[in-house]
Amino acid sequence: MSTQVSGNPYPDVSASRWSAAKIQFARNNGLISGYQDGSFRPSQPVTRAEMMAVLRRAAIYGQQVQGQNAQLQPQQDPVVFSDTGSHWANETITEMSSYCGVASPLNERGTAFAPDQATQRNYAAAATLRALDCIAKDDTATQATR
User: Where do the structural domains in the chain lie, given as residue ranges?
Assistant: First the structure.
């Protein structure tokens, strides 16, 4: 991965920003897409729903890099969250709940996902680890069938 960019990855992300190359890599590889107004908002907290959207894309990217199918295979029954039914990320959150439990209830209890709440660092770490473990599990299963 390059450590430099030739231009601004987004209008609100300067090429001189410390994270510009990483943001550009993530954008170029479909891991992030920014907001509808074309901005990235690098200093804005990430919501739990946004985190699931990024982790979904990262899992698909990870599978493709390993030569696997670009579809996430459910590993468990999906969770029906009490507060995501009309949310823009409902399908993604539900899919990621069935993908090794990457999406899980707020504080791992109850039925609320809290999609618009800022992602806490402990949840980001736990969800990311579950996604990475699931990618590795899919890769092991793929290699066993070859």
Answer: 1-44, 48-144
Q: What count of residues does the chain have?
A: 146
86-94: long-range contacts (C-beta < 8 A, 24 or more apart)? 87/49, 87/115, 87/116, 88/49, 89/49, 89/50, 89/52, 89/53, 89/115, 92/49, 92/52, 92/53, 92/56, 93/49, 93/52
Paired tokens of 98 = 């069935």
Which of 34-38, 64-68, 130-134 shows the lowest mean pLDDT across its residues?
64-68
Cα(102)–Cα(75) distance, rounded to whole angstroms? 10
Confidence bin at 141 (pLDDT 50/70/90): low
Q: What distances in angstroms separate CA 115 from CA 43, 81, 110, one per listed residue?
A: 19, 10, 14
CA 134, CA 111: separation in Å to the nearest integer?
22
What the block records as the tokens of 79 is 């969770």
Measure the CA–CA gap between 94 and 76, rounded to whole angstroms.
11
